[in-house]
Every structure is written in structure tokens, then in C-alpha cells.
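FIELD: query
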Amino acid sequence: MAEGTPQYHFITGLPRSGSTLLSAILRQNPRMTAGMTSPVGSITNALRIMMTQNTEIRALVDDDSRARILRGIFDGYYSDHQDKSVIFDTNRGWAGRIPELLHLFPDIKLIATVRDPAWVFDSVENIIRKNPIRQSSMVKATANIEARAEAMLSNEGLIGGPLGHLQEAVFGPDSHRLLLIDYRALCLAPDKALAGVYRFIGEEPFAHDFDNVEYTQEEFDAALNTPGLHTVKGRVEYKERQTILPPGIFAKLSARQFWNGEIQSKAARIIIPDKTVTPVPARAEAEV
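FIELD: result
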């Protein structure tokens, strides 16, 4: 990395698993910037495809040019943040594009927030129920809860898509570039979780204020007809509650967890193992 050039790192993982919360915390550090999902992932993916599949463009743009153009998208989008030492770009698809990211930025690390998929779906259902006279763009209008769960778990679904990318990253050859942070660990012990992040990316620690964390993207959430989707305000804490999912659906989604226990991966993890078998997790007692 050239002197004065920001270091890019990436936030990825599952939806409703704390990526916006993590970004809101990181933004407190004046050396860093982070936010909700940016358009950079979609733009670079479309450009990469166009530059390699369009016959005329492919004849005029070689690999070196493609890399410069793709890097230019990052620098252009974050041109107002070139004074930062570290820029985190967020996209759930980055976990499936690690070789590409390493080609563009050889020193990158990825932070993946994770959460029991059953609680991810439960969170989506809860936030939709808070806006009952709006039709959220996240779900089909006529689908019942079982159909919504199936759609979420499909390969192209809100949960299934990122889950597949995450498995590819965790068990792939570049897994040492990845740090998994469990949602409960982030909420129950944010100081330890952030200390782990700083160690992982090789940055000096920062004294974050976990009692006053704020971030919102009201216009984006309104466009999805799902207000409050990316709103963080107040103290970092974990609130226990009863799930609103039927037991069978909860169990089916929860079974898709793969990051707890012993796994054959070099990925780093900040987790609190959930030893319960009921839909309502007990207060965790294990160390982060």
C-alpha cells in the first residue's frame, strides 16, 4: 500500500447479524470509515462481467487495465474518505469474491458477522411486522411464513445466498483472511469483539463508546418499504426474547449454522457457543 493511500478491508456475512452495528462502532474511530452495504460490489461485478464477456471491450481491455478500472471504482466512490487510514466496504457477496479482492488489494482482510439463521429470519419477520400496512420488498406479498422461510434459504435468497458465500470463504484456501464475529458476542462483549478486530487487521486499538452508537439510512430503508432496517441508536446490548417463528421452521433454519464447534478452517472466530436446544437462548456464560 502506497503511503497516504487508505487500506481497504471488507465487511461481509449474513444479513441481520450485526454488520451495520459493527460499522457504526468502527465509524467512531476518526481513522476509519464504514457503513451499510455500498453499491461498489454491484458496480464492480457488473463491470467485471462486461469487460470480459463483451467481445469489443474484451479486445481493448487487458487484465492490467481491468484491475486498474476496478480499483478506480473503489477510489472514486470513497474519494471523500481518502484521508482515512482504513476504509471498510460492506457487501454480503464479498465472501464469494475473495480471489478477486486479493488480486485488487493483496493485503485485505474480511470481517464476517454471523448469527443463527433462525434468528436472522426471526429478525426479518419482526421488522416487517412493525410496518404492517407496508409491503416490504424483502418478501412476497402472498407468501405464508413457511414459503417465506423457503425463499430466504434458497440459493438466491436473503439468507441462503450469503450463507453459501460464507461457507465458500470459511472452508476455502483464503480462510486465514477471514474473521467471524457472532452477533451475540458483538452485543454481549463489544469491547472484546472490537479488540479482536483491531488485532486481526493490525491496527492500533481505539477507545469506543459502546453506550452511544448511532447510524441510520432512512432513505434506503424507506425505498425497501422497511423502515428501521439499518438503524442503530444507543447502547450496545443483547436483548433476549421469545422467537415468533413456529418451532419446526426455527429448527430447520438453526440447523444451517456451521461455524460453531470444531471446524476445519483457518478462519479466526469471535463467538459465544450456544449450548441451548430451545428457541430462546440462555444468557451466555462462555468467554468470548
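FIELD: remark
Strands lie at 7-13, 32-33, 86-90, 110-114, 178-182, 213-216, 231-234, 268-270.
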